[in-house]
Specification:
By secondary structure, the protein is mainly β. It has five helices and 13 strands. It has one domain. Helix content is 14%, strand content 41%. Strand 11 and strand 12 form a beta hairpin.
């Protein structure tokens, strides 16, 4: 039987899972660890909060001689789908130093889309922007704009850090069209195996990403608040707590990318989304990606 908090989580008009799914797609927080291979790879993850299945995510990573494509397709699932039918799609297309980032979905029947071009050393160019809560996009400015990363490009770096630990270090400016923010990366190495004859391979068991809440700048809002944080919908104490599940709320937000496990070293097998309500887990379903 569902608790009162769990029930409100499911029936909330602007369901919390929509925030989680949009956050994952918008921040690019789930991509293929095998994206560098010259092939196409497809696999799936389930998202769960406690025993509740909240959604499903499909991953597609493909490369050719001239282009890399990283795509995520997510939708609500389980009992949540009865009351909130939401889906979204994130895409990164990379050709050399040229990257196109696209985020599109449907919010309450309203189509949303962001399409932004990133070129190394240049200000990002917003080609298309339609959002249910913002009339216009955040205009990229000097000096941060020339250093900005597309959300999914930064996660591509995170995933490659499984084999190259030096990539999971540092602070980065991320721009998604609606907001900019700083992200800290730090890696965790697997424990040493004493008595082993072979030296350990330079791999990570986990790369942690921390979004710094105080760095958030969103179009049309004073820092560090965002539209979902201001209580415009007359939220109660419980629904206010639910808002904290959302990635772009007050305070820092941490996500752990876990490599290894049953699928072997260097493969993303789990994502741990830390929130005041507890852990939101993304885990592989079906066969391991190869």
């Amino acid at each position: 039987m569902l608790s009162r908090v769990q029930a409100r989580f499911l029936i909330r008009p602007r369901g919390s899972f929509k925030w989680i799914l949009r956050s994952l797609l918008g921040a690019g927080l789930m991509l293929a660890a095998v994206a560098g291979a010259a092939a196409e790879h497809i696999w799936h993850m389930d998202l769960r909060w406690n025993f509740l299945k909240l959604g499903q995510v499909k991953f597609i990573a493909a490369t050719t001689d001239s282009e890399e494509r990283l795509e995520i397709i997510g939708k609500t699932a389980g009992p949540l789908r009865w009351v909130k039918n939401y889906d979204g799609r994130g895409l990164l297309e990379r050709q050399g130093k040229h990257e196109t980032y696209t985020l599109e979905g449907t919010d309450g029947g309203v189509r949303e889309i962001r399409r932004i071009v990133f070129e190394r050393g240049e200000l990002p160019r917003v080609l298309e922007f339609k959002d249910s809560a913002a009339e216009s996009y955040l205009v990229p400015e000097e000096p941060w704009g020339r250093q900005a990363w597309a959300p999914m490009a930064l996660v591509d770096r995170v995933l490659k850090s499984a084999e190259r630990p030096e990539l999971c270090v540092g602070e980065f400016t991320v721009f998604d069209g609606k907001r900019r923010y700083q992200v800290l990366l730090s890696g965790t190495h697997p424990p040493k195996v004493y008595g082993s004859v072979k030296p350990p391979l330079p791999r990570l068991s986990q790369c942690s990403s921390v979004l710094l809440g105080e760095s958030m700048r969103e179009v049309g809002h004073s820092p560090p608040q965002s539209a979902e944080d201001t209580g415009q919908e007359g939220a109660t104490m419980e629904t206010s707590k639910m808002r904290q599940v959302w990635l772009f709320g007050r305070g820092d937000r941490r996500i752990d990318f876990v490599f290894g496990g049953e699928c072997g070293a260097g493969v993303l097998t789990e994502i741990r989304f830390h929130s005041p309500l507890g852990m939101i887990l993304g885990r592989l379903t079906g066969p391991c990606p190869t």
